[in-house]
Amino acid sequence: MKFVKLLSVVFSLSVLLWACGGNTAEHADHADQEEVMATEADAHGEGKEYTSAYVCPMHCEGSGSDEMGKCPVCGMDYVAQAEHTSDGHSH
User: Which long-range contacts (CB under 8 A, 24 or more apart) does 29-35 make?
Assistant: First the structure.
């Protein structure tokens, strides 16, 4: 009889720990994802060379435009901001 009670308690604790462990891991993954997003936003920059519709791949100071063109500093062709960031580019 004692063995059945002990087995029941051990099983209950195992289920409880398993259930809580799953939620903790999910919460940790979510927190990690938020940290990565914040890091990417911080590293990307805030000036027009980072936020314009078209940006210089080198993010030269004073570059960036609402229209396609060339960077006035280095002469590289501007790239669409959406394409530039969607290919995994972040710094």
Answer: none
Quickly count: other Cβ atoms within 10 Å of residue 56's Cβ: 26
Closest residue by Cα to residue 49 from 39, 41, 61, 38: 61
39: Cβ–Cβ under 8 A, 6 or more apart, which residues? none
Asked whether 78 and 85 are in contact (CB, 8 A), the reply is: no
Q: What does the alpha-carbon distance between residue 65 and residue 13 come to, in Å, rounded to a whole number?
A: 61
> What percentage of the chain has pLDDT greater than the value 70?
60
Q: Is 57 exposed, middle or buried (0-12, 13-18, 19+ CB in 10 A)?
A: middle
9-51: per-residue pLDDT in tens?
Answer: 888 777 766 666 655 555 555 555 555 444 444 456 788 888 8
Within the chain, where are the H helices?
2-44, 48-51, 81-86
